[in-house]
Design a protein that fits this description.
16 helices; Aldehyde Oxidoreductase, domain 4; seven-stranded mixed β-sheet; 3 domains; binds dioxothiomolybdenum(VI) ion; 31 strands; globular; about 750 residues; about 25% helix
């Protein structure tokens, strides 16, 4: 039987990234690179306390400094109209920029200096002096657990993953023959995409605004800004043509964007504001420091009896941030008794944000490490333990899976990594000075689609332009859409251009939650189908054999339109265009979620296998091999999918071994807010990797047969590393990152 799954060797024949050349040649312009006439530069001034009020703000020296055009603070802000509206729920709102003298976290923007050059703005910002009435700040999660609260969201959504939940009996693990009860800690992590968050704000008229902005959703940013500044949404244009990574940090409007818009209003000129690498640590969200308590109980033959799982994550003082830490626990394994509790702890920090595979990655770290611990107590192989508890349907929603090839993922991955080399007893394999171990863990993320429209302009010269507002933060959305259209129509990919990242283009969701391919891909299929229907209508005026043409059987073949049901009905495209009297055809196609959600439970899956070597004297961990297998339905763009999976594994290795944003609780300030001090993996830290895709169609989510990929690639990587380190050393590290000091 032909091999269906895709591995590293299958990638060469796939289409390459359509914007790859523009990116490596420097021709792709990111927000901060755009130049406008009369452009001015804004630099933020930050608070130096964590809680209190500003008692005085001396901006005179800054105002008199060379090149400085204006200094804005709470004393002279033009104001954000939305802040004045009634019924504003302060707890649920973003930080109100320059609204009053209150300070909620160290690093909060308290003023902005606008100058004719970046350097003069930076110098001006250094001259602003604030004095404060300082109050005690709270920044430590673990010493403030007594402040843990049920999020308001839980009350609004009682069935959601942040509400207290019981299936069967609470605490049932206590009755089981074999038990694991542990605490796991995930520190705060910063997204740190290569591209700094940047914005150019330009008021084209008193009620008309254009933004060049790093965002994951051009239309969502336009909608949010139009609300804040009380403008008609069509008067706010947002361009995000190229985005150099985001991982969730650009899923919402942040204070610096509001500041840039206020500044442009005040100086009546376009304003560019680029965050510094330092500011990236606390101005645009982060994965929140989270403590989890997990208890598992199983019978001696490995069948799970009960799981209890609690999560405590930090949030800011002014806004509730929640995420789905407990989702996987509720649906992953076939277990009759589950109880979960989700709490947030408000602290003097900025608001967190989803960060790749958001709460699910955090949750999988605890659950999948606990499963590994259980496997040792039971003396059952960890892959076997997962197979014993495999859920044949979704035990949470009590619904059939739309598709679930987890067993295939375990089988393929185990074979590729050489799982049979793993020794069941930890700390027993030695290679010179290195201890050797293998680990496995599972990831899952919900698969979704929402509504989108794609517009097509098909020209007589055979070129096809497709447009949608969707952003591409790096996964290669334009490439995948080009692949879908090329396959559907029969047009070579070189003839297709997919433009995106523009709020004036047809409707699209944010690029977040792994839904772009499912959503915009469906609209791309729809527009291709509509185009073929229109072409067939024109053809029917010329020849018989086109009246009941089935769109799936119609293809463009070179210079002709062909119908595979009526091969003699072939017509030339040139004749169709001359017949219509037009040089181009403009057509739209839309797709939206159907009722599939009520029939099936949709998830993508990943299984990660890691071989880790740990140096016995220094505690250094070297990942020697990584094999990840993903069930994301059909892979439509193998090369970019492989890159996504590679990025997920690298991110997961960083999460496991290096990443930790550290706040000094004495000052409330992040102390490692730079790439020198915040460690992420570099090439030398990354091993040989094997990226595999099951590549089996999901019949129920969309016409491509695809699920989602962006998040599931990182979910489960960190616990696989932690489990491999345990297998190598016999040391169980439950507090990420697994730095050498924890292993010696
Ligand atoms: Mo993703 S965390 O939805 O950018």
């Amino acid at each position: 039987m032909a091999k269906k799954y895709l591995d590293n060797a299958d990638m060469a024949r796939a289409i390459s990234r359509v914007d790859g050349r523009a990116k490596v040649m420097g021709a792709a312009k990111y927000a901060a690179e755009v130049q406008l006439p009369d452009l001015t530069y804004a630099v933020l001034v930050e608070s130096s306390i964590g809680q209190g009020t500003i008692t005085s703000l001396d901006t005179k020296k800054a105002e008199w400094a060379p090149g400085v055009i204006s200094v804005i603070s709470h004393l002279n802000t033009p104001g954000v109209p939305e802040y004045k509206l009634e019924n504003q729920d302060v707890i649920q709102k973003q930080l109100r920029v320059f609204d009053d003298a209150n300070i909620y976290f160290n690093g909060q923007p308290i003023a902005v200096v606008i100058a004719d050059t970046l350097e003069r703005a930076q110098y001006g910002a250094s001259l602003v002096k604030a004095t404060y009435k300082k109050e005690n700040h709270l920044t430590n999660l673990e010493s403030n657990l007594s402040r843990a609260a049920v999020p308001k969201k839980a009350k609004a959504d009682p069935k959601g993953f942040t509400s207290d939940f019981i299936r069967g009996k609470a605490g049932a693990y206590k009755d089981a023959a074999v038990q694991v009860e542990e605490e796991y800690i995930q520190p705060s992590e910063v997204h740190h995409p290569m591209e700094l968050h940047s914005i150019i704000a330009n008021w084209e008229a008193a009620d008309k605004l254009t933004l060049v902005d790093k965002t994951q959703g051009s239309q969502q940013t336009a909608a949010s800004i139009s609300k804040s500044f009380q403008l008609p949404v069509e008067n706010v244009k947002v361009l995000a043509t190229y985005v150099g990574g985001a991982f969730g940090s650009a899923l919402r409007v942040w204070p610096h964007e509001i500041v840039a818009i206020l500044a442009a209003k005040k100086v009546q000129k376009p304003v560019k504001l680029v965050l510094s690498r330092n500011q990236m640590s606390y101005m645009v969200g982060y994965r929140p420091h989270t403590l989890q308590k997990v208890a598992l109980g199983a019978s001696k033959d490995g069948k799970l009896v009960g799981i209890s799982h609690e999560s405590y994550g930090k949030t800011s003082m002014y806004e509730e941030f929640t995420e789905n830490v407990l989702q996987m626990t509720r649906m992953m394994y076939d277990v009759p008794n589950i109880d979960t509790k989700y709490r947030i702890v408000p602290l003097n920090v900025s608001t967190p944000a989803p960060m790749r595979g958001p709460g699910e990655a955090t949750g999988s770290f605890a659950l999948e490490c606990a499963m590994d611990e259980l496997s040792y107590k039971l003396n059952i192989d960890p892959v076997e333990l997962r197979l014993i508890n495999y859920a044949a349907e979704d035990p949470d929603k009590k619904m059939a899976w739309s598709s679930n090839y987890l067993k295939e993922c375990y089988r393929l991955g185990a074979e590729k990594i050489g799982w049979n080399k793993r020794k069941a007893e930890a700390g027993t394999v030695q290679d010179g000075e290195w201890k050797v171990g293998y680990g496995v863990a599972t990831g899952t993320f919900g698969a979704f689609r929402s509504a989108a429209t794609v517009k097509a302009t098909y020209k007589a010269d055979g070129s096809l332009l497709l447009q949608s507002a969707i952003a591409d933060i790096g996964p290669g959305t334009a490439t995948a859409m080009t692949a879908i259209a090329a396959e559907n129509l029969g047009i070579p990919p070189e003839k297709i251009v997919f433009q995106l990242g523009n709020s004036t283009f047809p409707k699209a969701p944010m690029q977040g939650g792994s839904n772009s391919l499912a959503t915009v891909g469906s609209a791309t299929v729809a527009v291709c189908t509509n185009l073929k229907v229109e072409l067939a209508k024109l053809a029917a005026q010329q020849k018989s054999g086109w009246n009941n043409a089935v769109p799936d059987h119609v293809k463009i073949s070179g210079a002709d339109l062909v119908n595979s049901d009526e091969t003699s009905a072939k017509v030339s495209l040139a004749s169709l265009f001359s017949q219509s009297g037009q040089l181009e055809m403009v057509i739209s196609g839309s797709a939206a979620q159907g009722d599939e959600k009520n029939k099936y439970s949709f998830y993508s899956y990943s299984v990660h296998f890691i071989e880790a070597h740990v140096h016995e004297l220094t505690g250094v961990v070297r990942i020697k091999n990584a094999v990840s297998v993903v069930d994301c339905g059909t892979v439509v763009s193998p090369k970019t999918a492989r890159s996504q999976l590679m990025g997920g594994i690298v991110g997961g290795i960083g999460m496991a071994l290096m990443e930790e944003a550290v706040i000094d609780d004495r000052t409330g300030r992040t102390v490692n807010a730079s790439f020198g001090d915040y460690h992420v993996p570099v090439n030398a830290d990354i091993p040989q990797m094997e990226m595999l895709f099951v590549n089996e169609r999901d019949e129920h989510l969309n016409p491509m047969g695809s699920k989602g990929l962006g998040e599931v690639v990182i979910i489960g990587v960190a616990p696989a590393v932690a489990n491999a380190v345990y297998n190598a050393t016999g040391i169980r590290v439950r507090h990420l990152p697994i730095t050498p000091d924890k292993l010696i």
